[in-house]
């Protein structure tokens, strides 16, 4: 299940980033939907990285206390 979600997320992220890069090359503004999805994906990535960093720190501290 996680593999399918990770694959879909990666595919969507690749589509958004390539679209934004193409628009920047052609000096065109990004559509509102592309910008919105880009912000959502950046938010999800940031939240996941913070949660994983917190979990790693918590695991380290709980293992050190034993």
Automatic annotation (TrEMBL):
It comes from the Bacteria. Keywords: Membrane, Transmembrane, Transmembrane helix. The chain crosses the membrane at residues 36-61. This is Uncharacterized protein. The lineage of its organism: Bacteria, Pseudomonadati, Pseudomonadota, Alphaproteobacteria, Sphingomonadales.
């Amino acid at each position: 299940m996680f593999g399918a979600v990770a694959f879909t997320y990666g595919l969507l992220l690749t589509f958004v980033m390539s679209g934004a890069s193409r628009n920047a090359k052609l000096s065109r503004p990004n559509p509102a939907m592309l910008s919105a999805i880009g912000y959502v994906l950046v938010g999800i990535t940031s939240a996941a990285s913070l949660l994983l960093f917190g979990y790693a720190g918590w695991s380290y501290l709980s293992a050190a206390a034993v």
